[in-house]
Amino acid sequence: MLRYFLVLAVTDGSLLITSFVLGLLATGEPRGPGSIWRGIHLLFALFTTMATLGVHSIVYTYFLATGKWAKEVVRVYQLPDWINDQAKKNKRKAFRFEFWSMTLIAITAWLGAAADTQGLNPLWHLGIAAATIAFNLGAFAVEYAVIVAQARLLLEVKARADQMREARYGPESANVAAEVASGEDRR
């Protein structure tokens, strides 16, 4: 997940910044049927909004799935409860940033539409857009740190489960489990 997240975060951060720059170019253009920069900004901003929502939704889904996996492994192997508590803590830590990132991008899109169609002062849209970019870039850093913490926790859970399985069933069971996990089951 770490590599995928880095690619998604850099891509989305680039989209956010590009959309902002396109918006600045669009403000210098008079309104009307020939306003090409406004149309480009609108389409690019819609794509950026969907991409931002998608990236943060993927992160949310990752914590939801890995938290459930950790809970199940803790239950089955009777591991300490602090493991499940830490997985929940990681999910809660990331959720605030996921939620507010998605909320801010939605507000930015709404204000952009209002500035374009309802005559709202475009400085509102500009200000919220700048805040949205800054918050999302910070959120990406926090989400990355929490994903790293979750990955370390998952590796520890897997190591403990493998160790217990080997103690119960012998070293052969750990080898079979590793082969099945890697897709190399040759039986």
Structure notes:
It is built from five helices and no strands. With 187 residues, it is mainly alpha-helical. The protein has a domain at 55-182. α1 (2-27) runs antiparallel to α2 and α4 (122-169) runs antiparallel to α5. The chain starts with a helix and ends in a 5-residue tail after the last helix. Keywords: Membrane, Transmembrane, Transmembrane helix. The chain crosses the membrane at residues 5-28, 40-65, 97-115, 127-155.
Distance between the termini: 30 Å
Can you tell me the residue ranges where pLDDT is under 50 for at least 5 consecutive residues? none
Biggest β-sheet: count, sense, barrel? none
Strand content: under 5%
Name the helicity range.
over 70%
**Element-level helix/strand string:** HHHHH
Overall pLDDT, averaged?
92
Anisotropy-based shape? elongated
Number of helices: 5
Total number of beta strands: 0
What would you call the structural class? mainly alpha
What kind of oligomer do you see?
single chain
Using only C-alpha atoms, the radius of gyration works out to: 23 Å
In short:
With 187 residues, the protein is mostly helical. The chain has helices at residues 2-27, 36-77, 81-117, 122-169, 171-182.
Task: Give the helix/strand layout.
Layout: H1 2-27, H2 36-77, H3 81-117, H4 122-169, H5 171-182
Keywords: Membrane, Transmembrane, Transmembrane helix
Transmembrane segments: 5-28, 40-65, 97-115, 127-155
